[in-house]
Amino acid sequence: MGGHKEQDVARQGFDVADAVPLLLDPHGMVSSWTGGAERLLGYRAAEAVGRKFAELLVPEDAERVPDLVERCRSDGDWAGLMTARHRDGRPVAVMVRITPTLGPRGRSSLLVLLSELAGSSGWDMSRAVLEQMVAGTSIGIAIVDTELRFVWSNAALEQFGGGPAGRRLGLRFADVQPGLDAEAVEERMRHVLDTGEQVVDYEHVGHARSAPLRETVHMLSFTRLDDDRGRPMGVYYTVVDVTERHRARQRLALLDRAGKHIGRTLDVLRTAQELADVTVPELADYVTVDLLEPVLRGAEVQPGPLTDSDRVPLCRAGQRSLYEDLPRAVMETGTVLRYLADSPPVRCLTTGRSWLQERLDPLALAWVTPPGGRESTFLELGLRSAMIVPVRARGGTLGVTGFFRRRHDPFTEDDLHLAEDLVSRAAVCVDNARRYTRERDAALVLQRSLLPRRLPEQDAVEVSACYRPADELTGLGGDWYDLIPLSGARVALVVGEVPGHGIDAAAAMGRLRTAVRTLAAIDLPPEEVLAHLDDLASRLARDEGDGESGDFSGRSVGSGCLYVVYDPVTGQCTMAAAGHPAPAVVAPDGTVTFVDLPQGPALGVGGPPFEAVELALAEGSTLALHTDGLLAGGKPSPDGGPSPDGTDRERLRQALRGAATALEPSCRAVVDMLVPARPYDDVALLMARTKRLDPGRIAVWDLPADPAVVAEARRTSTRQLARWGLDDLVFTTELIVSELVTNAIRHAGGPVRLRLIHERALVCEVFDGGATAPHLRHPRAMDEGGRGLLLVSQLTQRWGTRFVPDGKIIWAEQSLTAPLE
Prior knowledge:
Blueprint: H1 3-11, E1 20-24, E2 30-32, H2 35-41, H3 45-48, H4 59-62, H5 65-75, E3 78-85, E4 91-102, E5 108-116, H6 127-136, E6 140-145, E7 150-153, H7 165-168, H8 173-176, H9 182-195, E8 199-206, E9 216-226, E10 232-241, H10 243-261, H11 268-279, E11 286-291, H12 293-297, E12 311-321, E13 336-340, H13 344-351, E14 355-357, E15 368-369, H14 378-381, E16 385-393, E17 396-405, H15 413-450, E18 461-468, E19 478-485, E20 491-498, H16 503-521, H17 526-544, H18 546-549, E21 560-566, E22 572-578, E23 584-586, E24 592-594, E25 599-600, E26 612-616, E27 622-626, H19 628-631, H20 646-657, H21 663-674, E28 683-690, E29 698-703, H22 709-724, H23 730-747, E30 752-758, E31 761-768, H24 788-795, E32 798-804, E33 807-815
Parallel strand pairs: 22-25
Antiparallel strand pairs: 1-2, 1-5, 3-4, 4-5, 6-7, 6-10, 8-9, 9-10, 11-12, 11-17, 12-13, 13-15, 14-16, 16-17, 18-28, 19-20, 20-21, 21-22, 22-26, 23-24, 23-27, 27-28, 29-30, 30-31, 31-33, 32-33
Helix pairs in contact: 10-11, 10-15, 11-15, 15-16, 16-17, 20-21, 22-23, 23-24
């Protein structure tokens, strides 16, 4: 402290009751020492008298003594804080007052008063000092009596409204601040009066008289004042305006909540609705999110004029309101609204810049007319203030977001900045959802184009399939199913799964499905089909570099496949699996079992050879082939493997047991019971109920390896066709039987068996013990032979060879519905 202010303070109540006096001569030497000084600093009188006062202080304060001595001689008193040095060397904080005085014999001297600060509360403040303190602060301060009436307040309290201090005297809080919740404030005052407990940092939100149109937040603290006997005299309280801090905290909380709740899905409409939900009521009373129609379809927004008419179409993607009458007409998500071409929303859409109107013209018409509704003014809608913020992402404008208020507080520039932050965050999420929608739709179109549109008609099984794609968080996977008619009235049932999601997975699935159909066409056994698929997956991995990078996402490596062949003539079923769950079998009596099927390795990863199992199925048994997403309930598998645990199988068992008798509703009901509408992983279920061909539609003859038997084979076949009523096919069948039997006798050894099957087509099969497949030749005009199989290929719908353990079967099919002429 220095100058006149220090002198004034020195005069304002320095308490000398406990002070230690000592005298200094004009040169600053100690001339008189007291017992109190000895107790304070430890020096005896003989040690202190004659020493410079500066030597009793720490060096920093010792340098100040000459200047202070001169100042006291000219200006009078000085008071302040110093640090003395005790005799034992420790510092002693003291309050010092230096006053000019007359010493012994009338000599000019300096009276020094020392008061130790340890345990002291500092200076004793007079009312004048205290009034200076409360008058100079920006904090509002007031005192109310036990009746909660104002008895004193400082000037700073006037900034909050309620008039000057003199006008407040005798009034209650509600009298000077009618816009605030006076009852809540006085309740805390009474609590302080009754208990003596201090209330600190109580936040109060309302409209003060100083700002009736703006919501303000004040922080109040209350302390009880007691008299000398400890009885309550009143309450002392302070007021601080913390509106900006409160709003900043609200903005941060709103931004944090937006980060957690906006963009939780990859759905454009849900993301737009999340933006509206988050901002009402914290920022606005009514929020609309309108997007361009291509955005909802996942398409790119094309540059250029929005429309040639005076109305611009936008789709309502999300909305939220505090009031039941807003929107006035019921507008569902996806409704197309038409905005005036010169309206602020369209200008924001075209310029990409935000728009703020603190006070809307109450008589102006709203910018959009709801479908089926009438035009309304902003006064009729009760809207007072508005902001329009464009939804922009990656350099393009996707739509606009409208923020509206009915309350007294108009939007401010700070509100606009907050709205822009919120919309910019949401815009990225909307654009991500749009881009995902586009890719998902493309993958879905690709996947559905690769899956069978309808399963082929045949007489071996009654079949139904259900496919459920993954939700938007994971994208479409590579699950597929198929039914492939084979020779001899048999069918192949296939279910497979490619790892990964998206277009890559769908493309890899298409490759594998095509390969399976190609291998099925040459009638290979299930284990050999999987072996060839395994080679194909490995080859594709090498060609694409997948084997080196180890990234098999959406590729063929690691795929699973279950291949089942069912013969309705014998009721035998043969199957093999590559990294895929075994099928369930529902017996005609409803009993559910799971096939004990050896699990071969996934395709392309290497491992032991694939093994097939064969089992006999009673007529009316149902095979349930499925991908692993069905057992996992549509959730991700913890280890990514196909092997289900007992709980998963038990859930499937219960679902199959409780399914309907009809196959198609049963198939969908099983999927509905086990997986949600939007599963984490794709789910495919193929259910096939076995049939048996009527023995009367099968004819078998064992023939000796004698060329003379060919004629008898023709006659026997003709008689059988007559019994079946297939006289139109007699001529072609005789030629086919003659050629196939002749080839078997001529080129293979051992017995020959002829079989005719009357199914949807007429199947002619000839078995022999040879291991060499015949091949189609194209003889020259002058060749005498070699035209047999060429003739067969011309007369039949399809023909081929399949190998069995003890030989081969050459077969040919003729259509019953459109016989060849």
